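Worked example

This section walks through a single chain of length 272. The input is the sequence exactly as stored; nothing has been trimmed or padded.
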Amino acid sequence: MRGIKHLLLYLFLMVAGLFLLYPLFFTFSTSLMTPEESGLYPPKLLPSHLYLANFKESLETAPLVRFLLNSTAVSLIVTVGQLLTSSLAAYAFAFIPFKGRNLLFSLFLSTMMIPWEVAVIPNYLTIKSWGWLDSYQGLTVPFLASAFGTFLLRQSFLQLPKDLIEAAKIDGAGHLRIYAGIVLPIARPALATLGVYAFLTTWNMYLWPLLITNSETMRTVQIGVGMLQWQESTAWNLVLAGITIVLLPSLFVLLFGLKQLIQGLSAGALKG
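Given that input, the structure is written out below as C-alpha cells.
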C-alpha cells in the first residue's frame, strides 16, 4: 500500500513537472522555428531544423545587448548591496545585545507583510524628488536593503557555535573582526542563497523599471522584450527568440545556485 502511494506521488510530481517545464520547452522550440512554422495552427512541438536567424533578427530589432548589460549591472549592484546590508543587520540582531532588540526585529520583519505595490507611489515620488528618474541610482537604491535577507541570514548566524564567538571575544576580537573573519566565511551557504535569490528577483523585475525609465539606454531586459511586439502583428518566433536570450543568464544562475538556494531556504524554514 505504501509503495502504491509513493508511485502515485511520483506520477503526480512528474505530471506537475511536465506542466511547469512545457512553457520553457515551447519557448526554446519556437525560437528555433521559421516564421512559417511558428504561425501554424495547431502549433508544432519541434522545429523541422534549427533556424538560428531568429536570434540575429531579435538582436537587430531591439537593443537587447544594452538591455542585458543594464539588467546585469542592476542585478549585481542590488545583490552586493543586499548581501552587505542584510549581513550587517543580521549580525547585529544575532550577536549584539541591546534594549528592544526583539521588538525592533519584529517590526523589521513586519515590513515583509507590506506588498511592494503599496510602496510604489511613495518610492516613485521620493526618487523623482531626488532627480534619480531614468538612472542606475533609481533602479538600485530602493532595493539595497531586504527584510527577507536579514531574516534569512540571522537564522543562519544563530546556528553558528556560540563557543566560537565567545572564544574570539576572549582573544580580543571586536565585532568587525568576528563579522568579517568568522561569521561570514562560515555562513557562505546562506550568503550564496541570498545572492542567488536577490539576483533572480532583480533580474525578473518589471513594474519598477517600467515606471522610472524612459530612455532605451536605461531599459532592462524585461521591458525590452516588449519592443519585439508590434500593434499590427507579432512574429512569435522573434519574440520567443528574444525571451530565450533574456532567460539564459537567469537560468545559468539558477542552475549553479539551485542547491544553495534550496539548502538555505530549507534551513531558514526549519530552525527558528
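What to look for: DSSP finds 14 helices and no strands in the chain.
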